[in-house]
Amino acid sequence: MPEVSKLRKPDVKIVLLGDMNVGKTSLLHRYTERRFKDTVSTVGGAFFLKQWGPYNISIWDTAGREQFHGLGSMYCRGAAAVILTYDVTNWQSLAELEERFLSLTDTANHDCIYAVVGNKADLTDPKAQVHQDSDSVSEEGPRTESQVLSACPTPPASPVSLSGLMLHKQVTHEDAVALYGRLLRYKGLDEKASLPADKMCFETSAKTGYNVDTLFETLFDLVLPSILRKRNENKESPTVDLEDCRGTGKKTRSSCC
Amino acid sequence: MSVKAFELVPAVERDLLMGDKARINIECIECCGKHLYVGTNDCFIHHFLLDEVTSAKGKLSYSAQKLLHKYLGLKKPVAELRAASALERLIVLCDGVVFLVDMVTLETVPSAAGGGAKIRGVIAFCINENPVNGDPFCVEMGVLSSKRRTVQIFMVYEDRVQLVKEVSTPEQPCAVSLDGYFLCLALATQYMILNYNTGAHQDLFPYNSEERRPIVKRIGREEFLLAAPGGLGMFANAEGVSQRAPVNWSESVIGAAVCFPYVVALDESFITIHSMLDQQLKQTLSFRDGHILQDFEGKVILASTKAVYVLVPLPLERQIQDLLVSHRVEEALILTEGAQRNIPKEKFQILHKRILQQAGFIQFGQLQFLEAKEHFRKGQLDVRELISLYPLLLPASSSFTRCHPPLHEFADLNHLAQGDQEKVLRCKKFLISYLGEVRSTEVANGCREDVDTALLKLYAEQDHDSLLDLLATDNSCLLADSVPWLEKYHKYFALGLLYHYNGQDSSALQLWIRVADGDLQDSTRSDLYEYIVDFLSSCSNLDLVWKYADWALRKDPTIGVCIFTKRPATKELPELNPDDVIGYLGKHKQALLLYLEHLVLDRQIQKETFHTHLAVLYVERVLSLLSESPTDDEQLTKARERLQAMLRESNLYRVQYLLGKMENCEHLLLERATLHGKLEENEKALHILVHKLRDFPSAEAFCIWASSRRDSAYRQQLFHLLLGVYLDGSLPGQSQIAAGGGSGELEMAAVDLLNRHGEVFDAVRVLRMLPEGWSLQLLRPFLGRAVRASMHACRTSQIALGLAHSENLQLLHDRLKERKKPVVVSAKKGCHLCHNTFSEPDVVCLPGGVPVHTHCVAQRVRDSPTKRQLTNRSNHT
């Protein structure tokens, strides 16, 4: 069930991008509801409002399907952080990030933070199979590994054997780090001045919860300065200008109504 | 899944509009207050008056009255109608021309002198509902021209239109919406936001307007609803940012509107209603030949090709109730909270609370207690609503009646559980924990009695440990209601506590005594008897103490006596008079003894009667033990030790009386000796000890005891007396080695005494007393110690003397220092006594620091009849 917006105004926006079936919705769901459950293909987009200390952070879950591709840059507009998600068992999903999704981030804030996240790590990495959420165990009761596997229909993009054998890991951590480097170059950012790749490349499992909290909480901490700056700006002018390079007679407009 | 949020109500039926003319279709509608205008494909405008009629059952319907219809004379369909009510004009788009007609007469407004009232080549236009220009007598209009890739902004006045701005667009626009300076445009391949004042634009997202009809709908200040690829309803604000998640329409949506909190959309055969709060589809209404969906001042009006309908929102409360009926708690709460801004604050708070409470009960019914509790807490539920679900828990005297309309569908717990005892039990456990949590909070204000009584009943029924805690601390349990309940569950001890809490100690004690006697069964406390004793010991009602102490003493005198001995000495408790207690305990010998021991030994009460009484009781006990045969030696020894200790330690008992008591008893010689000692009849005492008992260690001990609080002279006297007794007894033998042991024994005792306690004796006197024949060897330890003692005394006194002397000097020195005046002696000064000068430094100083000759002072002292002490001798130069 999509989360409720509760009508609070978000202070900052984080957007999940990535090809379909890499597990964007599941990642968000794991983080917000502390469990893994079946999701259907996201239509359009959905967002969740997270209370982080005194701030409201909206996390947008976008649709990975090609059909909704055009909406991506709108979701990214004004984003403080973008989570580029791929599937560790699917090389193509990483390639898509570069081919399709990178350009969507053009509308994000100039100081936007990028994270490259390889999901479904539990399929290739034994250490990601350990359930991290302490609450998930008590919530769902004891369940054997075979139950877990059969109860979780893996999306068609990443076939999994029911025997629980490890799948071949198609995308290594180094591949993700390399992508991050290219991303910085695409953005024209200095690699040394930017956040280091080993801090911003994650491998996660929405199914076991592996690294999921780390991912989101790392990002929340990193976007805090952005929130503070936005608040300060808002003190000066209550409306963000449509195009700040040309912001001429618009400020009078903002006070109307 | 679905909610009934709206109802489709016919407004203008087909007959009224076009009768049976099959070719006539509705092209556009406009509604302004009660006035409904319909434009048709045969170039007519129909004007209706639309009245809301509410039936007796509360059902809403519309009655439409046709006022006028007017042919515009263009033979083309009327494409758009917009009312400018302030100007009393309708803005009409027909055959690519925008012109004005009078709202009442529907007559075309002729062009004014200064400017045209017509705009040609128009494909679409929109009215700015949020114009920057504040002039109320003109309307701002955005116009899409068919020829140029431009958007024109016009001001519409009563009789003319005026072009104020023209902005070009990258592609041909096909739909437009306007808010403030912001134009939201559907272009051929994308949507964009265009600020017509600055010319700044923001691409939104791509869209193929040839495939699907674009929708650009202003839904609020600087926010638009757009048809997006994949049948999405996307939200976008003037900054080009989506602040709400999209809703999922069908691909063929024709029109859309927002009626908070819902997004209503029309496609070929359905009206779909999504919630903006959770993006879910809430309701689907079948609607054939749907053609138009528009909202006018909050009213959503739809038209098929032949008839007009109004989509009437159901009251929010009813929607929420419907959700609750189908147990969709979360959705109901989201809807309630989402409606907050549409409802006055106070009304909202009441509604919100009620919904929370209802939600809580639904979850309670599903045994989701954690969630239920949270909702009860947030909804500030009157906790009695919950208690009343449990049969018989509310006290009979409670004034509570359930709220109406009811918050839930359950008659009671049995109804809820449908006979499932496990469910009942879980519900009860929940209530126990819930009441336990709220009883001390403000939730329980005003109904503490109901809460505590209910809790007591649950505790009793469930055999819960906290029952006693509840009763032992501050509580508001109702006695009348609780008594039968506690009796039913055999919680007699708890009931006693409740009686006690209500000041009915007598009832409490009666009940407990029946339990302790086994008349009633309650295993709560295995040590109930001790508890009762303890209770009585601190009972403030003395009548109760006297009344029930007898029962306690009969049951066990040694424990029962604690009622009196353990009574705490605090100001709150009335004191018991010891004499009364002693009188009361007359029947209970053992208890009396214990009580007297408590008074004399523990409390150290210095009163003759208690001491004598205790001593007599000891004597009687010893005598009774002696009279038994065979005698229990161990008991007897103990009893005698106690008696002896008493006789030795106490000085208050009546000695003669006790002596009389044991006069004839030959067994109690030691005790008699002690008594004689008390009377200072030491000779008698020693006689008994030495001659009758022949117990020499006791005799020595007697001497030490009898002189323990006296000076050393007295002790010496006693020891000499004992020595005398020994020696007198040994005299008849006259011989150093007396035969027969008797006198020899005494002699040995005398020797031992001297050797052991030599320091006490006056050695000189002893030597005089001793028989001539005793060997030195025999008395060596005594003599050695006597000599050493004598030497020691001599030296000690010398040291004392020396110390006293030095102390004296020290004092003199100090005194001189105090004066701080040097005594000046010089050859020129004369002695005050003889007036001669000094020739040597040795002088004597008279008081006042006057130096005189040594010999003059000596002279003077010799001469003086009174011996005056002279001070200070010093050597000042």
From TrEMBL, chain A:
<dbReference type="GO" id="GO:0005525">
    <property type="term" value="F:GTP binding"/>
</dbReference>
<dbReference type="InterPro" id="IPR041836">
    <property type="entry name" value="Rab20"/>
</dbReference>
<feature type="region of interest" description="Disordered">
    <location>
        <begin position="235"/>
        <end position="257"/>
    </location>
</feature>
<dbReference type="GO" id="GO:0015031">
    <property type="term" value="P:protein transport"/>
</dbReference>
<dbReference type="InterPro" id="IPR027417">
    <property type="entry name" value="P-loop_NTPase"/>
</dbReference>
<keyword id="KW-0449">Lipoprotein</keyword>
<keyword id="KW-0479">Metal-binding</keyword>
<dbReference type="GO" id="GO:0046872">
    <property type="term" value="F:metal ion binding"/>
</dbReference>
<keyword id="KW-0547">Nucleotide-binding</keyword>
<dbReference type="InterPro" id="IPR001806">
    <property type="entry name" value="Small_GTPase"/>
</dbReference>
<dbReference type="GO" id="GO:0030670">
    <property type="term" value="C:phagocytic vesicle membrane"/>
</dbReference>
<keyword id="KW-0968">Cytoplasmic vesicle</keyword>
<keyword id="KW-0333">Golgi apparatus</keyword>
<keyword id="KW-0342">GTP-binding</keyword>
<protein>
    <recommendedName>
        <fullName>Ras-related protein Rab-20</fullName>
        <ecNumber>3.6.5.2</ecNumber>
    </recommendedName>
</protein>
<keyword id="KW-0636">Prenylation</keyword>
<dbReference type="GO" id="GO:0003925">
    <property type="term" value="F:G protein activity"/>
</dbReference>
<keyword id="KW-0460">Magnesium</keyword>
<comment type="similarity">
    <text>Belongs to the small GTPase superfamily. Rab family.</text>
</comment>
<keyword id="KW-0472">Membrane</keyword>
<feature type="compositionally biased region" description="Basic and acidic residues">
    <location>
        <begin position="235"/>
        <end position="247"/>
    </location>
</feature>
<dbReference type="Pfam" id="PF00071">
    <property type="entry name" value="Ras"/>
</dbReference>
UniProtKB/TrEMBL annotation, chain B:
<dbReference type="Pfam" id="PF00780">
    <property type="entry name" value="CNH"/>
</dbReference>
<dbReference type="GO" id="GO:0034058">
    <property type="term" value="P:endosomal vesicle fusion"/>
</dbReference>
<dbReference type="InterPro" id="IPR032914">
    <property type="entry name" value="Vam6/VPS39/TRAP1"/>
</dbReference>
<dbReference type="Pfam" id="PF10367">
    <property type="entry name" value="zf-Vps39_C"/>
</dbReference>
<dbReference type="Pfam" id="PF10366">
    <property type="entry name" value="Vps39_1"/>
</dbReference>
<protein>
    <recommendedName>
        <fullName>CNH domain-containing protein</fullName>
    </recommendedName>
</protein>
<dbReference type="InterPro" id="IPR019452">
    <property type="entry name" value="VPS39/TGF_beta_rcpt-assoc_1"/>
</dbReference>
<dbReference type="GO" id="GO:0005737">
    <property type="term" value="C:cytoplasm"/>
</dbReference>
<dbReference type="GO" id="GO:0006914">
    <property type="term" value="P:autophagy"/>
</dbReference>
<feature type="repeat" description="CHCR">
    <location>
        <begin position="566"/>
        <end position="731"/>
    </location>
</feature>
<dbReference type="InterPro" id="IPR019453">
    <property type="entry name" value="VPS39/TGFA1_Znf"/>
</dbReference>
<dbReference type="GO" id="GO:0006886">
    <property type="term" value="P:intracellular protein transport"/>
</dbReference>
<dbReference type="InterPro" id="IPR000547">
    <property type="entry name" value="Clathrin_H-chain/VPS_repeat"/>
</dbReference>
<feature type="domain" description="CNH">
    <location>
        <begin position="23"/>
        <end position="300"/>
    </location>
</feature>
<dbReference type="InterPro" id="IPR001180">
    <property type="entry name" value="CNH_dom"/>
</dbReference>
<dbReference type="GO" id="GO:0016020">
    <property type="term" value="C:membrane"/>
</dbReference>
